[in-house]
Amino acid sequence: MDKVRKTFDSWAQSGRAELMEVEHGKNVSKFLNTISFDKPFSFLDVGCGNGWVVRNIAKESNCKKAIGIDKSKKMIIQAKKKKDSKKEEFVHTDIESWKYRGKFDFIFSMEALYYSDSIEKALKRIYKLLKPGGQFFLWN
């Protein structure tokens, strides 16, 4: 197990994921409220932690699907426990090796890409997962 997974697994168990949600929630919510979700869309959160952004986005009426991925298996377990709707999906994986075949209208990542084994590979994969005209939001 790599150090990143081990660190975030321990954070999932210690309540740190909920603390991150509280610390970042207000500013991230303000930012997400600036995005126009006026037509049906799909959303990916890279490094979703306990899934709080995915849960919030899934509440948007035009959201068809919101997926969160994370390297930490224990974060994904936490996210699945808090799942609110059928629109939400959580996957234990990293962006570089994820074999998803679909495309997304919006991809969001907060303080996660610098944990990638290769930021270049991660960004290339994100680009391939975006629909034409899709938007990528990086919060670091």
UniProtKB/TrEMBL annotation:
Domain Methyltransferase type: 44-138
BP term (GO), one: methylation
GO molecular function: trans-aconitate 2-methyltransferase activity
Enzyme class name: transferase
Name of the molecule in the record: Trans-aconitate 2-methyltransferase protein
CDD domains per record: AdoMet_MTases
Documented EC number(s): 2.1.1.144
Alphabetically ordered keywords of this record: Methyltransferase, Transferase
UniProt KW Methyltransferase keyword: yes
Short name of one Pfam family: Methyltransf_11
